[in-house]
Amino acid sequence: MNSNHPLGQLVLFRMRGFLREPAALFWVFVFPLLTALALGVAFRNRALPELAVAVVDSPEAEQLVPTLDAVDGLTAQQMTEAAGRDALRRGKVSLVLIPGAKPELIVDPAQAEGRTARLMVVDTLERLQGRVDHVALQRTEVTAPGSRYIDFLIPGLLGFGIMSSSLWGLGWALVQMRTGKLLKRLVATPMKRGHFLLSFMIGRSMLAVVEILFFVAFARLLFDVRMFGSLLSFTLLGLWGSTAFGGLALLVVCRANNAETASGLMNLVSMPMTVLSGVFFASTNFPDWLQPVIQFLPLTALNDGLRSIMLDGTPLLALWPQVLILGVWGLIPFFIALRYFKWM
User: Fold this and answer.
1) 2 in the Ramachandran plot: left (φ > 0), alpha (ψ -120 to 50) or beta?
2) Which of 204, 294, 305, 336 could make an SS bond with 322 (beta carbons 3.0 to 4.6 A apart)?
3) What membrane topology does the annotation report for this chain (predicted)?
């Protein structure tokens, strides 16, 4: 594109405006890295938590407490039944054991820790009764790059960062120009509306390329998160995702008159995707009846595609459903915004 072309000049205008805003640079580049650093440190090489078990006072408790306490992953303490039930209710213990001829286990079935503690306690009690395992099992801990939580987290954080920087960076800039009466001045120029809106999307996509490469290098250096697929495919998909969220941002703020309205609309769009689209945990955890909606969200498509390329080495052509979904969310909102955009 010729730099003297109106669209080229508008893109340069947007890039200069962005580089003159230190706060914008922080939220686009620094904040996602700080988030990844904090979560990566929290979840990298994290030891399994000790599950607390309350053993109710009884003659057998004197033997059971040290036996359970010696089990890797369990910590046992002796107390009355009332204190044990109260500790279970407050979440201080995962299970209450009442010894006897038929031991009773009191556990909250809604707590995953309680179900795990139940299995471990039952296994220990059966061994005390003389159970012999006829199959020898070998335990292998997975620590290889590509199979850790941080490997799952990094593509999700990058997708979240692309969504946030596109929605807020692009949308907020337009609202500020409208409330500052700058758009009112621009309407008197021979500039085409399409060139003006397209310059926002192009400028944001150019920044997205830098953001993606910077984020990948950061994850590789600090957490040894490896790229098993093509870096070019990974970058192109992230670029396409930035375009999708750019079109969505234009639609959200195309008629917003003030910052309060724009902020509310952007939160309304971004918050459901932040929760549902698999940023911090797999989107498959949600009910089956909700999956068709979740899978059609642009952030879900972007996160799934980025993870497939980074962790599985999937080629970009095999991700055509995600590419199609992102295209729908980018192009259709852009043309609707082009139709209903108001300068003042």
Assistant:
1) beta
2) 305
3) Multi-pass membrane protein
Phi, psi of 140 (to 5 degrees): -125, 125
* Residue 251 and residue 219 share a domain: yes
Residue 220 belongs to what domain range?
7-43+148-340
Going from the C-alpha of 309 to that of each of 158, 186, 207, the distances in angstroms are 13, 42, 21
Question: Given 82, 99, 128, which residue is the final one in a domain?
Answer: 128
Contact 297, 326 (CB under 8 A): no
Q: Do β-strands 95-98 and 104-106 pair in parallel, antiparallel, or remain unpaired?
A: antiparallel
What pLDDT is attached to residue 292? 93
Residue 224 lies in a domain: yes
Predicted local distance difference test score (pLDDT) of residue 68 = 87
- DSSP three-state, residue 56: strand
Tokens at 315, concatenated: 């080629």
Q: Which of 99, 128, 157 is the last residue of a domain?
A: 128
pTM given for the model? 0.73
Half-sphere exposure (CA, 13 Å, Cβ side) for 33?
Answer: 18
CATH code for the domain in which residue 107 is found: 3.40.190.10
- Give 218's pLDDT tier (boundaries 50, 70, 90): confident
Q: How many domains does the chain have?
A: 2
- The whole-angstrom separation of Cα 134 and Cα 121 is 20
The reply to whether 178 and 324 lie within a common domain is yes
251 strand-pairing partners: none
Average pLDDT for the chain: 83
Contact residues for 64 (Cβ-Cβ < 8 A; gap 6+): 55, 76, 97, 99
pLDDT at 137 over 80: no
* Mean pLDDT within 88-102: 86
Task: Outline where DSSP puts E strands in the chain.
Answer: 51-56, 74-79, 95-98, 104-106
Rounded Cα gap, residues 204 and 60, in angstroms:
68
